[in-house]
Amino acid sequence: MNKDKDDHPKHLKPKSHKADPQLDELRQQLQDLTEALQRERADSINLRRRYEEQLSALSSIVKAEIIYKLLPVIDNFERSLKHIPEDLADNDYVAGIKAIVKQFETVLAELGVERINSVGEEFDPLVHEAVSMDEGDGTREIITDELQPGYKLNDRVIRHAKVKVKMSE
Amino acid sequence: MGKIIGIDLGTTNSAMAVMQAGKPEIIPNSEGARTTPSVVAINKNGERLVGQVARRQSVTNSKNTIYEVKRLIGRRFEDKEVQRDIKLMSYDIVKSGTSIRVKMGDKEYSPEEISAMILGKLKADAESFLGEPVTEAVITVPAYFDDSQRQATKDAGKIAGLEVKRIINEPTAAALAYGLDKDNTKDEKIAVYDLGGGTFDVSILELGEGVFEVKSTNGDTHLGGADFDRVIVDFLIAQFKAEQGVDISNDKAAIQRLRDEAEKAKIELSTTNEVNINLPFLTADADGPKHYEYKLTRSKLEQLVADLIQQTKIPCEKALKDAGYTTSDINAVVLVGGMTRMPAVQEVVKQIFGKEPMKGVNPDEVVAIGAAIQGGVLQGDVKDVLLLDVTPLSLGIETMGGVMTRLISRNTTIPSSKSEVFSTAADNQPQVEIHVLQGERDIAEGNKSLGRFILDGIAPAPRGIPQIEVTFNIDANGILNVTAKDKGTGKEQSITITGSGNLNKDDVEKMAKEAEIHAEEDKKKREAVEARNMLDNAIYQAEKLKREQKDKISEDDAKIIDESVAAAKKVAEDTSSDKDALVKAGTELSEKMMPIGAKMYEAPKTEDASKPTEPDTTESKKDDEPIEGEVVDKEEG
Question: How far apart are CA B180 and CA B189, in angstroms?
Answer without folding.
Answer: 10
